[in-house]
Design a protein that fits this description.
It contains three helices and no strands. It has 124 residues and is an all-alpha fold. The chain has one domain.
């Protein structure tokens, strides 16, 4: 009878430890997976910029054709480097880089100073 009580006590302690360990391991595994995915996306992001610059040299192609070229190159790069390929995330990243490029390279009008506001010197 005493052996059964000891076995039940040890088993309940082990179950408590297993439940606690599982509670810590599940979020840890999820965070590691999320970190790996983010790291891979960042690695792919740096190469996306080079692919976009390369695609911009194609002067006779539309924007959609250039994007398809970049997406194909990104897919091939992801396969070669064993990076999980999320087409929607890559597409969003390409759009973000292109939008940033357009914003930075936007040509605006240069403000000119009118002649009325210029200060003239007076000779005495």
């Amino acid at each position: 009878m005493e052996n059964i009580k000891e076995i039940i006590t040890i088993a309940s302690a082990c179950l408590g430890l297993i439940a606690t360990a599982t509670g810590f391991l599940i979020p840890l595994v999820k965070n590691v997976k999320a970190k790996n995915k983010l790291t891979a996306l960042n690695k792919l992001s740096t190469t996306l910029q080079a692919f976009i610059v390369d695609a911009e040299t194609f002067t006779n192609f539309t924007g959609a054709e250039k994007k398809e070229y970049v997406m194909t190159k990104a897919n091939r790069y992801a396969i070669e480097n064993k990076i999980p390929y999320d087409e929607q995330a890559i597409s969003d990243k390409v759009e973000e880089i292109v939008a940033l490029s357009k914003e930075v390279n936007k040509r605006g009008t240069v403000s000119t100073v009118s002649k009325e506001s210029q200060v003239t010197s007076i000779r005495i």
